[in-house]
User: Fold this.
Amino acid sequence: MLSRLTRPQAVAVCALPVVALLATAAFAPLPFSVAQPGMTANVLGENKGTPVITVSGVPVRRTGGQLRMVTIVATGPDTTVTLGDVVGNWFRTDRAVMPHDAVYPSGDTVKEIEKHNEAQMRQSQDAATAAALKYLGLSADKVKVTLKLADVGGPSAGLLFTLGIIDKLDGDGSGGDLTGGRTIAGTGTIDPAGKVGAVGGVALKMQAARRDGASVFLVPEDECADAKAELPRGLRLVPVTTLKSAVNSLVALEKGKDSVPSC
Assistant:
């Protein structure tokens, strides 16, 4: 014999599967990563006690100011991100919820991803050296450049590496610092011909740059709109498309000229 449930009892019985479903969804892994501003490093100085840029074969000038490459830090490829993590970080300005494949497109294991990022960093360093020497009209047979930056992978420091090499060898071309004594930060890939390419995570990288004292941020022109929408107070955006445009803008800033482009 079946007894009839009262309305409150019926609602309670029906609600149980819904609660269970919501609880399961709250703790189920989702294909996202949570990113935040990471470390920055002055490519004209040292990182963990080792010079980032070492040049031999030609005289090297003393530099002032700073050229800071910037990073973001994301939850690891094997870290579980749940609905609670997504909701909790979605509206934070110092966090970004990003598709897992956008952060880790290169493999399924930590070792595969680390190997891929290291290879990208080596390629970026080679391209930076080639672009800088080509810009200065120097031969790779006579000039040896070594770039070392511990615990950082990927290609997005290419532009700053290139500018650092140029500043150590030539500065602004007239004996002054390319930075004009400022703390300059930026991001962007570089190819051997000096073309600057877009990267991801610009909003968080700008936060890291401003946190570490930068007043100017070089951004690939294609990412101007995203950068301008999230620009921290006190940070000046300078769009770049090529190495030449980046150098020209920095020289114009140093000389106090009005010809510096903006987003």
